[in-house]
């Protein structure tokens, strides 16, 4: 399959997983705790099963690295080309009843995300992109191109984490920048907003963020003309030990 077909595969699986997540939400669910004390629900596990089964059937020779499997069995050794999946990014927001959770599927090759999908289960929206080819949003069954924006004259729209904030680090980073507005929200949905041209900057300078939290969002944002770099300004890469990210900064268009 070429990248267009692989993207459509991921889009379909994100849509199916989103439907399962919403079914769990309507039925009610318990919140459990993993070994690192982060929350997990039946929706996380059901969505991951749908996605990983679909990816393995379609691309049986490729490794699938998924959050819940890694929590139970440990992280595998990285390879040249692999799928990276967070079946329900923003479980805290999901459990709290906030509409800030997404399905994340990315394809990694040579340490870089080449395509990604962000599915928004509660709205049915899908954000998708192939790096170097462009990004789009599907809303109400219709697709349209999206693009990151250049910084507006009035100043930057800053996106900050709702649950994992480091106010001191963010304030230090923003010294000298003109910040016109700050929005706090959970999950990789913030990458989608930047890809759609609704915001300009997202610094996440604390460590402990996992690669499956960022890969799909980075792919969509970079496909839309934005960029994601580490704290030193180098491109954020994948397949690192333990699949753990350093701090990073996401930017809109130059």
3D structure, described in words:
The structure is a single chain. With 254 residues, the chain is of the alpha+beta class. The protein has two domains: 3-146, Fructose-1,6-Bisphosphatase, subunit A, domain 1 (Fructose-1,6-Bisphosphatase, Chain A, domain 1); 156-251, D-Maltodextrin-Binding Protein, domain 2, CATH 3.40.190. The protein has helices at residues 3-27, 42-58, 67-73, 91-96, 167-173, 189-195, 211-223; strands at residues 32-33, 39-40, 63-66, 81-89, 102-109, 112-120, 125-130, 134-139, 142-146, 156-161, 179-185, 201-204, 227-230, 248-251. The strands form four sheets. It has a seven-stranded mixed β-sheet with strand order 3-4-5-6-7-8-9, with helices on both faces. Strands 12-14-13 form a three-stranded antiparallel β-sheet, covered by helices on one side. Helix 1 (3-27) packs antiparallel against helix 2 (42-58) and helix 6 packs parallel to helix 7. It is globular. The two termini are 32 Å apart.
The radius of gyration is 17 Å
- Multimeric state of these chains? single chain
CATH classification class of the largest domain: Alpha Beta
CATH H-level superfamily of the largest domain: Fructose-1,6-Bisphosphatase, subunit A, domain 1
From the spread of the alpha carbons, the general shape counts as globular
CATH overall fold name of the largest domain: Fructose-1,6-Bisphosphatase, Chain A, domain 1
Question: What does the average pLDDT come to?
Answer: 95
Compute the number of strand runs: 14
**In this structure, how is the largest beta sheet organized?**
7 strands, mixed
Number of helices: 7
Spatial strand arrangement across the major sheet: 3-4-5-6-7-8-9
Order of SSEs: HEEHEHEHEEEEEEHEHEHEE
- The overall number of domains is 2
* Strand content bin: 25-35%
Low-confidence runs: none
Distance between the termini: 32 Å
Helix amount, in percent? 25-40%
| Overall CATH architecture of the largest domain | 2-Layer Sandwich
Derived structural class: alpha+beta
């Amino acid at each position: 399959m070429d990248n267009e077909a692989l993207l459509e595969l991921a889009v379909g699986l994100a849509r199916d997983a989103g439907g399962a997540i919403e079914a769990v939400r309507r039925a009610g669910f318990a919140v459990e705790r993993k070994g690192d004390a982060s929350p997990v629900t039946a929706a996380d596990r059901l969505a991951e099963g749908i996605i990983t089964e679909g990816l393995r059937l379609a691309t049986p020779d490729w490794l699938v690295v998924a959050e819940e499997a890694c929590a139970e069995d440990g992280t595998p050794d990285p390879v040249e080309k692999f799928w990276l999946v967070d079946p329900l990014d923003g479980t805290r927001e999901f459990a709290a009843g906030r509409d800030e959770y997404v399905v994340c599927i990315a394809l990694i090759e040579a340490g870089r995300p080449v395509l990604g999908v962000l599915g928004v289960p509660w709205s049915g929206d899908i954000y998708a992109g192939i790096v170097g080819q462009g990004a789009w949003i599907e809303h109400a069954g219709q697709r349209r191109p999206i693009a990151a924006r250049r910084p507006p004259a009035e100043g930057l729209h800053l996106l900050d984490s709702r649950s994992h904030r480091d106010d001191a680090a963010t304030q230090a980073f923003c010294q000298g920048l003109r910040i016109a507005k700050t929005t706090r929200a959970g999950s990789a949905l913030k990458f989608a907003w930047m890809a759609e041209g609704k915001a300009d900057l997202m610094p996440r300078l604390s460590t402990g963020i996992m690669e499956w939290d960022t890969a799909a969002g980075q792919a969509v944002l970079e496909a839309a003309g934005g960029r994601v770099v580490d704290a030193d300004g180098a491109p954020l890469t994948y397949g690192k030990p333990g699949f753990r990210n350093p701090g990073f900064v996401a930017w809109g268009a130059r």
